[in-house]
Design goal:
Blueprint lengths: L3 E5 L2 E5 L5 H5 L10 H7 L9 E3 H8 L3 H10 L6 E4 L2 E5 H9 L1
Antiparallel strand pairs: 1-2, 3-5, 4-5
Helix pairs in contact: 2-3
Amino acid sequence: MKSEMKVLPWVVQRVFEPTHVMDVMQGGMQGRDRTPISDALATFNDLPNSAYVPLPVVVSLFGISPATVWRWVSNGSLPQPKRFSRRATRWNVGELRAALNV
């Protein structure tokens, strides 16, 4: 399945299949082999505070593992994500920016 990107006015959703877990953990590949994660990080500053990003972007943004993201959410170090559907959980960009500035 090819990567797809759906952009809605109030939420950024990215569906992708990383070639390797480390690609996600390291923020994706460079050059022509860029992943949606590296693209999302490259444009993170351009996203409105009302946009939402998926777990792999949060992982890359903070440089932590997915397990650590959920641990930080449970202890209050990261904001609670919003659940859009059974398989779509996203974090608000404005709340992530606030968490980065703390």
